[in-house]
Structures are given as C-alpha cells and as structure tokens.
Amino acid sequence: MFYAIGLGLADEKDITVKGLEIVKRAERVYLEAYTAILLVDKEALEAYYGRSVILADREMVESSSDQILADADKVDVAFLVVGDPFSATTHTDLILRARALSIPIQTLPNASIMTAIGACGLSLYNFGQTVSMVFFTESWKPASYYDRMLENWNLGLHTLVLLDIKVKEPDLQAMARGRIIYEPPRFMTVAQCAAQMIETEEEKKAGVFHADDVLAVGVARAGAADMSIVAGTLTQLAEVDMGRPLHSLVLVGKRMHEMERDFVREFAVDKTVFDEVWKKSYEGHGQ
C-alpha cells in the first residue's frame, strides 16, 4: 500500500495517531521536503517516530517517482507531506502515477494552511482563489497571480497568498559551468510579499492594491505555539518583521464582514489606521 500522510503544520507531534501507526510499520518512509517545511528538522521526526526518514527532494519526487513507488504493491510505503497531502499538485501527480501502476493507495488528511489561515479571523467561506508569490529577480517578475487576485477582489473575496520557499535550488551559474552547487535555503517573508504586490500594482495600475487603502493580514508559523498574526495596510506590512518562516499573507476582500473586522482588528499594527481604511474601502460592502 502507498500511503500519502499529512503531517500538519508545526512539529513532529502534529501527525495523526493513524498516520503514526502506519509510519511505524512501513517498509520505507519518505518526507517530501520542498513544497513546504515543518518547524522542526528531520532528526526530530526520526526521534519521535522511531524510524529513519528519507528526504524526498523535488528531483526525486518529480523525476524519480519509480524509486518512491518501488514494490509499494507488495509492502507499505509512507510518503509524508507537510500540511495535507493534496495541498500541492505534485502530490496529486504522484498518486496518479501510483494508480497507473495498480498500486493500492490510502491518503490521510491533516491541517493545512488552507484551513489554518482561519486563525486570523477571516471566514474561510469568504476566500476566493489561492495564489502563489515567487521571489522576484531583476529580470523575472511574474505577475500571473495578479489576474487571479483581481478576480477575487472584484467579487469581494479574500485572497490567500502562499509565499515562495527555495530549498535545494541549484545555482544556475554553477550549472552553466558544469558544476552542481545548491543555493542556501530561502523563505519569503510577509514584508517581501507585500513589497512585491505593491511593485506589481505600480506596473499594472489596475486598482487592486492601493498600498494605503487596502487591508492585508500576515500570518507566520501557523499552527505553532509561537504563531504570529499582523494586520494592516500593504505599506505597513511591507515593513513588519514576523520572524522565522513559514509566512503567508491574505489580501482582505471588500466584502469583509463586521465580525471579521472585529476579530482581525486586534492584530492591527495601528488600530486608528485600520479603522480609517475600513471606513474608506470596506464599510458597506460586507454581507
């Protein structure tokens, strides 16, 4: 059996009891280690599970899936995913490959950022399409996320923005010289995301992110004991320091309900500014 097991968001203890039982008896245990990370390292998992864990990087999952799925029709193989198994399309693809090989499959869900983001006080019923924000470079500043965000904004819906992480990314200049060198891990912050959103708006001029006239919420380390939440304008969030990863950001939709406002307001950088923006851009749109 091939098991895709959600680990939750924070540490080694977020795994479900059923998932832990499977891990303890599985022939091999893989940890997907590039679409997201836990707030503890692999050694903490191994100590708690009492099992060795094989790190599965992007290359292994996307190009060497046969290695992961080998003999999974005869023995139990556990594939551990931070959050929920279906939070990333990579895992859907792996399930499809297992199906094509007639390997029996079982998935075990767990908490993901898609649900944990509700801790900021915004109703999950009022979220639209989720988008991803990648690190901009001098020559590459993709703005495809903007169109999805604009659709949400026009419907009055909140937009969850998942922030880029770079784990075991090859150095392109070194590759050009025939050498394989990996860059140090990088994790986008709420401040970087807000700044890039402002930069995109300045280029697009479509009226989505007037930096001082829209509200956003930054969430760091969702599900952990030291989770941090900050609310404010994009200009304010572009200056915040929310500490260690992982971070997420929500652009607040125009139909923000008064109950949502009251909850989110407690996290405001400046409650006076928060109230002014609410009255200018949000009041009267909620349902």
From TrEMBL:
<dbReference type="InterPro" id="IPR014777">
    <property type="entry name" value="4pyrrole_Mease_sub1"/>
</dbReference>
<dbReference type="Pfam" id="PF00590">
    <property type="entry name" value="TP_methylase"/>
</dbReference>
<dbReference type="InterPro" id="IPR014776">
    <property type="entry name" value="4pyrrole_Mease_sub2"/>
</dbReference>
<comment type="pathway">
    <text>Protein modification; peptidyl-diphthamide biosynthesis.</text>
</comment>
<comment type="function">
    <text>S-adenosyl-L-methionine-dependent methyltransferase that catalyzes four methylations of the modified target histidine residue in translation elongation factor 2 (EF-2), to form an intermediate called diphthine methyl ester. The four successive methylation reactions represent the second step of diphthamide biosynthesis.</text>
</comment>
<comment type="similarity">
    <text>Belongs to the diphthine synthase family.</text>
</comment>
<keyword id="KW-0949">S-adenosyl-L-methionine</keyword>
<keyword id="KW-0489">Methyltransferase</keyword>
<dbReference type="InterPro" id="IPR035996">
    <property type="entry name" value="4pyrrol_Methylase_sf"/>
</dbReference>
<keyword id="KW-0808">Transferase</keyword>
<feature type="domain" description="Tetrapyrrole methylase">
    <location>
        <begin position="1"/>
        <end position="237"/>
    </location>
</feature>
<dbReference type="InterPro" id="IPR004551">
    <property type="entry name" value="Dphthn_synthase"/>
</dbReference>
<dbReference type="InterPro" id="IPR000878">
    <property type="entry name" value="4pyrrol_Mease"/>
</dbReference>
<protein>
    <recommendedName>
        <fullName>diphthine methyl ester synthase</fullName>
        <ecNumber>2.1.1.314</ecNumber>
    </recommendedName>
</protein>
